[in-house]
Structures are given as C-alpha cells and as structure tokens.
Amino acid sequence: MLKVAGIPRLDNFEFLDRSLRTAKRRAHVHILVVEDDERTVSFLQQSLEEDGHTVDVALDGNTALAKGRSKPPPDLIVLDIQIPEPNGLEVCTILRQEGLVSPILILTGRDSPQDVAVGLDAGADDYLVKPFALVELLARVRALTRRQGAPGVKGVLQAGSLELDRLKRSVRRGDRTIPLAPRQFRLLEYLMLHAGRAVSRSELLREVWNLTFDPESNLVDAHISTLRSALERAGEPRLIHTVRGVGYTLRSDPG
Predict the structure, then answer these.
(1) Measured between alpha carbons, how far apart are the two ends of the chain, in Å?
(2) Are residues 55 and 49 in contact, defined by beta-carbon separation less than 8 angstroms?
(3) For residue 201, is it left (φ>0), alpha (ψ between -120 and 50) or beta?
(4) Pairing between strand 76-80 and 30-34?
(5) Strands 170-173, 176-177: parallel, antiparallel or unpaired by DSSP?
(6) Which of 92, 161, 215, 252 could form a disulfide linkage to 113, CB 3.0–4.6 angstroms apart?
C-alpha cells in the first residue's frame, strides 16, 4: 500500500479501493487543506476530490486563519503542523478559541506520545502521523464529518442545571457561564452523551484523546479533576462521580 511521505507520488492512484470511488457519498463536504508543500497539497486535493469532497487550500497560517473564519466555515480542516507562522498548532488553538466547531485533523511527522497529546489538547479532533496510508486518511475524514453531521444529534445537551451547547461550544450551570479549554469541553461532552453510565478510563482515552495508550498514568484523572473544579462551586452538588475500579459517570443534579 502506498505511503504518503514528504513528497507523495501523484501518478499512483490504482491502489485506491474501487469501493471508495463508487460508494454512495454523503452530502457536500467542504474541506480546507492547510499544507505548505505544494506537491503534497496537490496529492491531497486530488485524493479528497476523488473521494467526493470539495477542497480549498491554504499554504500558510495566516491564510488558514482567514479561510477558517469564513462564513460558513469549512466542514473539516486537514492541518499540517509545520507551516509558515503561525504554525498549525497556533492556528488550531486560535480557531478553537474563536468558536470554530468544525473537526480538525492534524497531519504531522511528529509521532511521540507527547506530540500527539499537545496536538489534541490544542483542539484537534484527530491526529495522523506521516507517512500515512491514503486509505486511512480518507476513512478518518469520513468518520469525522459523519460524527459532526450525523442526523438526529442534539445541539444542546442537558443534565439538570448543566447545559452544553455543541454548536456554540459553550457550557452553563444555572445562571453562570463556564469557560472550558477544548479538551475539557470534549471530555464533558462525552460524559454528558453517556450520562448515567459508567465510562472507563480506556474508553475516555480512546474517544476523547483518540489514544489507545496512556502517555501519562494519570492523564484522565488529572483532566477530570480540572473539569470538576470548573463545574462545581462550593456547596454545589457533584456532577462527575468516580466509579471505583471502572472510571467515571456523570449524573444530573436536582437542577
């Protein structure tokens, strides 16, 4: 299977599974590719268009920010970290702080657990290391856009006095707004989607961090502690409960 390295081959598409070409495609998806290597950009653009998507391109961080702020924004951003300033991590962080909710898939040659954690904590939804198999990239793109646009998904999640707006990326408890970092928001969102059920640490690592390993033995516990501190004022009922030997569960307060 062809691997995509720093300079991809543009003349070798026969490896694509024909089922990808002929499968029923989802509704129009607008993807922003942020990459400064023009041959890689050409390869990604052609590949994504072959998979039925509309592709826009940015070769540097400032152009990426401008196109990420467009109305409507891209449905998904494929973002290389090592682009002219601001770099990909800074672009990701800025767009999340400004309220962008579209999925972000980071592409990079950095593959250490620490690099993965930094990318996801910056607000990325997924992280793919170069060299990568094109078929895997296309599958991840479809999975991210499916997750974002699945019919019937609630825009606002409620658990007693706690309210999470998935489109505005805002959280309220009673009459106060609770600012959360992107990773904290995603963690709370997952717990609220599975409120009342015990969620294991390994499940949270997989679904919130996209990790199948724990780069730090207390990664989940540390984030849960920070999230609890943000959600609970003195005297307020606890929302996130520890399930001994399993993980955590979110239960509604009386409201």
Answers:
(1) 54
(2) yes
(3) alpha
(4) parallel
(5) antiparallel
(6) 215
